[in-house]
Design a protein that fits this description.
Shape: elongated
Strand content: 5-15%
Radius of gyration: 36 Å
Number of helices: 22
Strand order of the largest sheet: 13-14-17-16-15-18-19
Distance between the termini: 85 Å
Mean pLDDT: 77
Low-confidence stretches: 1-108
Length: about 600
């Protein structure tokens, strides 16, 4: 039977490619069914091949709209084969315990030696032999899943002769036994009691190893239950039959590194599997598995794990620098680190430093300090990171001294901060005479909060931006204070005392690399926001900072590529000068220089030959 896709027309050769997909999908599907022990792997390979062949067909033979009668005819058997191969992966995800000792019938009910599971009796199973303990466990887990109940291990005995060899095993229903009476009647219990899930269920499966036949023999098999069994659509929720595969854990971990939440990753897995019942685990299972993996990494304390990561960085980066201090309780107090690229960037662009902190927004209650500057593309570059125990003058002095020491004592030309008092005192102590400017964005924000009068706010901004001489500033400031009666306003008096740190009339004579605010740090703060929530470990915070650095540096690579592989369109009357500027300067700086060149060119009204 054939079906015509009248709305699409594909080029010649697609039939051969799709026929290849049919043969490969069918062959792999058949092989997977015959080799059930490796069904998951083979089905995954078949699914990936089918997916790749579909992409290849769309890439090589792009579909185009066609209203003619010569549309491409597609064999329906090919559709069936590809769909069957894709469904195999979902079928094999039902659980890790299905094995080749049993088969699935057309009625979707499992059989054991020709007898359906729901028809098995004690006489059918008692006395049956299994070559290995794994084979016996696989049978009972598969039986329990089909019947609709969970399984847990109740008893296991090991051999005294052969280490690790199991001689006896008893598996029971998850509802076996009952909850401790003392826990049920404890009136001092704060949390509410969970619902009862144990009902003294007698169902069990017991095997024993016999040396004379070298096999495991079933010595106990009870099928009776004292509770309702799970229905077919509920069996995927039975705890013993849920399992988060390593591939899904790896996927969720990779997604977390790029700020994709596990709940969104779970939705993607559900969509790829064809429904919630085909996934094989719940979203809570995924969260628990990820948390378990985190605990495996963080075997020691958070600080020790982070410091071990820093030591590992030294092995691959000979110029990596990390320094930390400890408090009187031998706990991590302050820490600073930077890599060789930070040192290189500071050597080239370390004239002006933006010094900012997150004000204890991280889960440790410690300020995370960023050392940021501007590179030759006028883009943000990071010089280092610091994590402090508090925001005292002593902590900031330690951090600044460590920073300068790590940069081979290269001094700064200027520095910008957000106005923190302890930070300003530390700068005066460590970098005396270094021009210091307050973030204009923070100054404007504070002015809006303290000057409720719009006219007073407008005059304050004129004092900050429009006056270019100290005399002009003093005159306008006095006029503002007298007009709006601000003589007794503490914030106004404080800002006047610090006028040399924010008013254009006092800072215009210093070089600040076109920077007036600490907003360059906000980009890193916004990226770090998902990693500063409760529960994030120090080690994970350090990794997130490293990823933020990689992202910033890759932007630099893109800018280099665009600059080195393109030329500017010359638009001014001074073509030679503009062309030379395009060669010497980066794209961002060139646009600033070109404006000046165009302005100068417009002044030329005639030429002398």
């Amino acid at each position: 039977m054939k079906i015509k896709l009248g709305s699409f027309s594909l080029g010649p050769g697609a039939s051969a490619l799709l026929a290849l997909g049919q043969s490969l999908g069918t062959s792999l599907a058949g092989l997977a069914s015959r080799l059930a022990m490796h069904a998951t792997t083979m089905a995954a390979i078949a699914s990936m091949l089918v997916y790749w062949l579909g992409l290849e067909a769309r890439h090589r033979f792009p579909a185009q709209l066609s209203n003619g009668e010569d549309g491409f005819r597609f064999d329906l058997n090919c559709f069936t084969a590809l769909a069957s191969a894709s469904r195999l992966l979902g079928a094999c995800m039902d659980g890790p315990h299905e094995r080749s000792a049993f088969k699935q019938s057309d009625g979707n009910e499992m059989e054991y030696k020709g007898v359906q599971y729901d028809k098995l009796s004690t006489e059918d199973i008692k006395g049956q032999k299994f070559k290995t303990m794994e084979e016996a466990e696989s049978f009972y887990y598969a039986y329990a899943k089909v019947m609709g109940f969970g399984v847990r291990q109740n008893y296991k005995r090991l051999s005294t002769i052969t280490p690790g060899k199991i001689t006896s095993l008893r598996l029971v229903c998850s509802a076996q036994g009952q909850r401790d009476v003392e826990r049920m009647t404890n009136k001092k219990r704060v949390r509410r009691q969970k619902k009862e899930t144990r009902f003294n269920c007698p169902c069990l499966f017991k095997v024993r190893y016999l040396n004379n036949i070298d096999a495991y023999v079933v010595v106990g098999f009870i099928t009776h239950h004292t509770h309702p069994l799970a229905q077919a659509h509920e069996r995927c929720l039975l705890t013993p039959h849920r399992s988060v595969q390593d591939s899904h854990v790896a996927l969720a971990t990779s997604m977390q590194r790029v700020s994709v939440k596990p709940c969104h990753t779970y939705e993607y897995i559900v969509n790829r599997s064809g429904g919630f019942q085909q996934v094989g685990f719940t979203i809570k299972d995924l969260y628990n598995k990820l948390d378990s993996k985190r605990r495996e990494i963080l075997l020691k304390s958070e600080a020790e794990t982070a410091l071990a990561y820093m030591r590992g960085k030294v092995a691959t980066d000979s110029h990596f620098y990390c320094k930390f201090s400890i408090d009187e309780d031998n706990r991590l107090a302050n820490m600073f680190w930077r890599d060789s690229n930070c040192l290189h960037d500071y050597t080239s662009f370390g004239d002006v430093l933006v010094f900012d902190s997150t004000y204890k927004t991280n889960p440790y209650g410690k300020p995370l300090v960023l050392f940021v500057g501007s590179n030759n593309y006028l883009s943000t570059t990071v010089f280092g990171f610091g994590l402090l125990i508090d925001e005292t003058i002593e902590s900031y002095i330690w951090l600044l001294e460590t920073f300068i020491l790590s940069m081979n004592n290269q001094k700064l030309i200027a520095i910008l901060t957000d106005g923190d008092q302890a930070m300003r005192r530390a700068i005066e102590a460590v970098l005396p005479g270094c021009p210091h400017r307050l973030c204009t964005w923070h100054v404007s924000k504070n002015a809006r909060n303290h000057l409720r009068n719009n006219q007073a706010l407008s005059e304050f901004r004129r004092c900050m931006w429009e006056e270019v001489t100290p005399y002009g500033f003093e005159r306008r400031w006095t006029t503002m204070v007298n007009r709006h009666k601000l003589h007794n306003k503490d914030w106004v008096n404080m800002m006047y005392e610090k006028r040399h740190l924010w008013a254009e009339a006092f800072v215009s004579g210093h070089f600040f690399a076109r920077m007036r605010s600490t907003q360059r740090c906000e980009g890193m703060h916004s990226y770090m926001k998902p990693y500063l929530k409760s529960g994030v470990k120090l080690f994970e915070l350090v990794l997130a900072l490293d990823r933020g650095l990689l992202r910033l540096r890759f932007k630099g690579v893109l800018e280099d590529f665009k600059s080195n592989n393109s030329t500017h369109v010359l638009t001014s009357s001074l073509r030679n000068l503009e062309h030379h500027a395009g060669i010497v300067f980066t794209d961002s700086v060139f646009e600033l220089v070109r404006k000046e060149i165009i302005g100068v060119g417009d002044l030329i009204i005639s030429r002398t030959f």
